[in-house]
Structure formats: C-alpha cells, structure tokens
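Summary of Year 1 activities. Much of the first year was spent building the evaluation harness for sequence design. The harness presents a backbone, in tokenized form, and records the residue chosen at every position. We chose the following record to illustrate the format because it has been used consistently in internal testing since the harness was completed.
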C-alpha cells in the first residue's frame, strides 16, 4: 500500500514536472518582437487616447492589458528621420538622415541609411532572429539602402510615402486649393510601387487593399517563423495622405475616411494578436504600437488629431513628436498607464536587453533600455531628456517636466512663422501639456539649466555626410 502511494506521488511529481517544463522551455526562448508603426497618426487618434468617434477596440484592449505610454516620442517630426531614429537607436542628426533642404527622401533621392549604421535587425539577426519589414521603409529605395541590405531577411511594401510618384500635372501641396485634389484622388494618380525584397512587383500599388495586405503579410511571416525568434517591423503607409480604405471599412466609421483607415489598421492589429494567441506565441511576443510623427494638420478632416497636444507633423511642438504608444506582452508587462518618458530610439536597447544582445559600443546611442519599466522592476525611467531636432537645428529640449523652445515654427502653412527666441519659451509639460503658458520669466534658473543641457548635447555631435540632399534626375523605374 505504502509502495503504491509512493509510486502515485512519483507519477504525480513527474506529471507536474512535465507540465512545468513545457512552458518553461518556451519561455526560455528569446522573445519575438512586432513593431507596428502608423504613419501620421496623431496622439489623439485612438479610442484609448481619447478620440470620441474612432473605434479602436483591439488597440484599446492591448492598452489595458499592457502599458499605455503618455510621454513617448519619436526622433523627428517627419517620416524619414523618424524611421532612421527607430531603426538605429540614434538621432538622425548623427547619421545624415536629417536635412534643412530636403526633409525626407524622395523617389529621385540617391541617399539612404548608410551601411555603417547598425540596425535593430542586424543586432537581432546575430541572435538567430528571422527578420522582416512589411510596409513603408523610407530609408532609401536603391538596393544598397533597402531592408535586405540592413539586416532584414525579407521586405514587402511601398518603399516611401504613398503620395510620391504622383503623375505629371497632378497638383502639389503648396496651396489649399491644390491640397483639395488629394481628397478625392485615384490610385493611378500616385504611381507608387510595391517591392518584394528589391524587385517591383506591383505598380501602381492597389492602395485600397494595402492596409489589410500588410497585416496579411505580417501574419504569414509569423506563421512561417513560429519555431524561431522573429522581429517583424510592420510600417503602415496610412493614414498618411492620400487616404484609402478597404471595402469592408470604407464608410464604416463616424470619423469619415480617416477614421475608416484607422479602424482598418486596428482590425489588422486584432488579427495579428489573434494569430499570436492561436500559435501560442502571445506570451513570448512583445508588440509595440506607435506612429512616426504627428497629424498632417493642413489636410483638414483627412489629417489626424494631436488631441490636447499643440500643433502636428513637421513641428517640434508636442503634437509633432509625442505619439500614442502601446506596449503589449501578456504575462510579462505590468499593466499600467506609463507616464515616464520613452522614445522610439529606446526600442533598440530594449530589444537587445530582452534578446540578450549587446548594444553597439563604438558609437553614441540615444536610446535607453526600457525593459525594467515594462517588466515592473523599476518605477522611475532611465530617460530624463528629449531633444527636438528639426532641419539640422536643435529647436527644443525637454528635461523632466520642463521644455524649452529655442526656435519655434508652425508647419505646412499652419501656425507661426519661424522665430528664434533670445529668451527661450518655457513650458511645464505635466501641468501644461498643451504648451499654452510660457513661464520662462518665472523660472530663469530652469531656462539657464536647459540651455546648458542643449549645449552639452550639441557638443556630442560630429559632422556627417547628408544623405537626404543627394538627388538624381532619375526616379525609381
Ligand atoms: Mg509620417
């Protein structure tokens, strides 16, 4: 009798061990990373960030289950430099991906992200990750600059903005009357290509189905690489102008076409999360959602909303560079509203820490490891400053709650003309997130301190070749 009880205990113990060892083996695997990057989505454009008439139930659920970041920034307020910052963990002023003459790359640009830069994908590849870019790259469309030259196994998407390659004679954005043409444009008027790796496979891209096809491609890649760690960078072309939505979403939102597009992006996020759950990968996958820059305000209802933040895309006000950001990793991330500061440049060191990779030591990184904040082992974040560069000039700096503007300027014909301030404007962003009340005269000591922070930061820069000013007469053909 005693013997059989012992045997029973032994069997139970073995059973328990087996149950324990299966998830432990999975947990020991390096975590997967999925970054979903919207284009020109504003701080106020998700339900969980306060939008009253756009429904984003999937992202809202992730915001509750994970962390909703309220002070998360990008490295620049327009596409190309913002993406360079995310991919390298460095301010674009350090790698030539920022210019006063040409704020982004165009189809006739000959530059791109230099081979000497180290991307997140290159670091993760060394750790055995499968890597893919799906969507908008905008870090150079020539073969030597495409994702496949920067550590990614595969690429599928439009290599730059969805409004580029406009047909001859189609109006630009200079005047409001010209901008109106973009509200009712056809796909043919924007002759943008879709590339698979380095080859054009579709032109003009069928932009009506682009958002859902990007989600499909991400799901396909995740399924194909379920047995090894993976990094998927899914960079939507939308809701950048011109807006296109799939037939199941067009006309479906109360917010008009812009809302239709955001709701379609949200549905794709929901499908990706469902796939991770179905494959049993959700507890080993960190999903990050954010946007490359703020809303393109001159486009009226076709542009987004920065919510309570001032201004939008192209500017160094909060509305240009603070983005609605969600980190989701069930069972790992401590759910909360996270008010510590973070930036897209922090993703590289954070992913390295979680994947057990070393960060590059031979260059200045502008990112910090956010994993202690995400996993709950720290309350206070590692980042105390944000630098707001525009057109190769340091326009503003944030330290703690304080932000000093040395130069201010609206953008795209909206807002103020450029002004260089003899006495910087000063805002206390936690008490005044809308940057309404300049308190410089009340806090000259803070102004002086932030000037010092800016000068010390500028002293860390070295001259580099500007990549955005290299142009040829030939576009991608
Ligand atoms: Mg953008």
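For this record, the design step produced the sequence shown next.
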């Amino acid at each position: 009798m005693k013997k059989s009880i012992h045997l029973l205990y032994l069997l139970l113990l073995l059973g328990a061990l087996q149950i324990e060892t299966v998830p432990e083996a999975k947990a020991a695997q390096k975590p997967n990373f999925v970054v979903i990057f919207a284009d020109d989505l504003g701080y106020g454009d998700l339900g969980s960030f306060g939008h009253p008439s756009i429904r984003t139930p999937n992202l809202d659920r992730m915001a509750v289950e994970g962390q909703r970041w309220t002070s998360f920034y990008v490295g620049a307020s327009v596409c190309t430099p913002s993406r360079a910052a995310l991919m390298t963990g460095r301010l674009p002023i350090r790698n030539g991906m920022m210019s006063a003459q040409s704020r982004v790359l165009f189809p006739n640009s000959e530059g791109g992200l230099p081979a000497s830069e180290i991307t997140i994908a290159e670091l993760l590849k060394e750790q055995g990750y499968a890597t893919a870019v799906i969507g908008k790259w905008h870090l150079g469309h020539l073969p030597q600059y495409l994702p496949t030259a920067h550590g990614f196994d595969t690429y599928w998407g439009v290599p730059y903005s969805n409004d580029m390659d406009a047909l001859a004679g189609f109006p630009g954005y200079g005047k409001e009357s010209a901008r109106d043409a973009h509200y009712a444009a056809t796909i043919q008027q924007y002759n943008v290509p879709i590339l698979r790796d380095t080859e054009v496979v579709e032109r003009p891209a069928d932009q009506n189905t682009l958002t859902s096809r990007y989600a499909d491609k991400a799901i396909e890649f995740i399924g194909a690489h379920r047995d090894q760690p993976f990094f998927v960078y899914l960079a939507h072309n939308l809701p950048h102008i011109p807006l296109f939505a799939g037939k199941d979403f067009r006309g479906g939102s109360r917010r008009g076409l812009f809302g239709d597009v955001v709701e379609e992006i949200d549905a794709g996020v929901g499908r990706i999360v469902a796939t991770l759950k179905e494959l049993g990968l959700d507890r080993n996958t960190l999903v990050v959602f954010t946007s490359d820059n703020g809303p393109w305000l001159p486009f009226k209802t076709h542009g987004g909303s920065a919510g309570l933040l001032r201004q939008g895309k192209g500017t160094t006000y909060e509305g240009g560079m603070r983005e609605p950001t969600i980190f989701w990793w069930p069972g790992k991330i401590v759910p909360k509203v996270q008010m510590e500061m973070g930036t897209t440049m922090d993703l590289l060191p954070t992913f390295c820490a979680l994947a057990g990779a070393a960060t590059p030591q031979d260059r200045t990184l502008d990112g910090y490891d956010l994993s202690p904040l995400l996993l709950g082992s720290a309350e206070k974040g590692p980042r105390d400053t944000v630098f707001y560069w525009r057109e190769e000039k340091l326009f503003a700096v944030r330290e703690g709650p304080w932000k000093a503007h040395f130069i201010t300027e609206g953008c795209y014909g909206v807002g103020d003309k450029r002004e260089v301030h003899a006495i910087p404007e000063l805002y206390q962003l936690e008490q005044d997130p809308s940057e309404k009340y300049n308190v410089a005269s009340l806090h000259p000591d803070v102004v002086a301190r932030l000037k010092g922070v800016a000068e010390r930061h500028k002293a860390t820069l070295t001259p580099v070749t500007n990549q955005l000013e290299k142009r040829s007469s030939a576009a991608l053909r």
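Confidence is low (pLDDT under 50) at residues 17-27. Quantitative recovery figures across the full test set are reported in Table 2.
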